[in-house]
Amino acid sequence: MEFFDTHAHLNFSDYAIDFNEIIENSLKTGISIINVGTNLLSSERAVDLAQAYEAGVFAAIGLHPSNIQYDPETQKGSSNKPEDVVEIDFDAESYGGLADQKKVVAVGEVGLDYFRLPKSKTRTQAMKEKQRQIFLKQLAFARAKKLPVIIHCRNAHDEMIELLKNDFSDNGAVAGVIHCFTATKDQAQKYYNLGFYFGLNGILFKIDLAEAVAAMPLDRILLETDCPFLAPPGAPDRNVPQNLPTIAERVAQIRNDSVDTIINSAANNARKLFGIN
């Protein structure tokens, strides 16, 4: 049986010592992986990992909203980890060189994150506006490169839907997935109408998303771990792709589907969205 972890971060420092062992074990158990970038450094690392393996490992490249530099005077990034380095803007030339590399299957993760906002209303508005501008730049980049997008959206679903509607109306649709889905059933329907897939992961054990997940068309569901984050209950805190069957079981339970149905459908959906033969 084929599994597809459509959103992993084995390109992060958390796996600096044992990434090869984790990837090899994943491949041996039938789990293919898309490692996702959050900035240029982690995107480069994702591409390097994809190219190091003959099959089963792929890459996505992009600038995460939390990796955008809003205040050059004070904001230096949250840590010294390469994946946390902030960037003042989206450099289409640098990312373009990565997008043209073999086994790059998506632009991501990109989007909006309104979880941690400045106390000042003026600074908050400036931060939101910069996120919107850079997201739209990356959407245009994905369109030009003919790649789907992996969208990160936290506390901003209504605004994201409106941004996508307006951009698609003006410039044409871009395929993609709403990663780590946390929206409502009504919002899911709007994303569906825009052509999006839904990335389901360990957040299902933390937030009640049953109404939305139960209503999702089977041909739009993807499985992901978002490792090293969101490990399912009972697993070590550092998540790994090998926990994907636990996610599949949870999705099947919510939907009253068989686990095999969820696994097979999600793998087929991943291959279709990301153009993987």
Question: How does this model look, in words?
Answer:
The protein is an alpha/beta fold and 277 residues long. The protein has one domain (3-274): Metal-dependent hydrolases (TIM Barrel, Alpha-Beta Barrel), CATH 3.20.20. The chain has helices at 19-28, 40-52, 92-99, 121-145, 157-171, 185-193, 210-215, 244-255, 259-274; strands spanning 3-8, 31-36, 57-61, 104-113, 149-154, 176-178, 197-200, 221-223. It has an 8-stranded parallel sheet with strand order 1-2-3-4-5-6-7-8. Strand 7, helix 7 (210-215) and strand 8 (221-223) form a beta-alpha-beta unit. The longest helix is centred in the middle third of the chain and has 25 residues, at 121-145. It is globular, with a radius of gyration of 18 Å. It starts with a strand and ends with a helix.
The chain-level mean pLDDT equals 95
Uncertain segments of ≥5 residues (pLDDT<50)?
Answer: none
* Annotated CATH topology: TIM Barrel
CATH superfamily: Metal-dependent hydrolases
- What class do helices, strands and sheet pairing give? alpha/beta
Q: How many domain regions?
A: 1
Q: Main sheet: which strands, in order across?
A: 1-2-3-4-5-6-7-8
Shape: globular
Q: Give, in order, the helices and strands.
A: EHEHEHEHEHEHEHEHH
* Count of individual helical segments: 9
Termini separation comes to: 16 Å
Q: What is the number of E strands?
A: 8
Which bin fits the share of residues in helices?
A: 40-55%
Strand content: 15-25%
Q: Write down the Rg.
A: 18 Å
CATH class category name = Alpha Beta
Largest sheet: 8 strands, parallel
CATH architectural arrangement:
Alpha-Beta Barrel
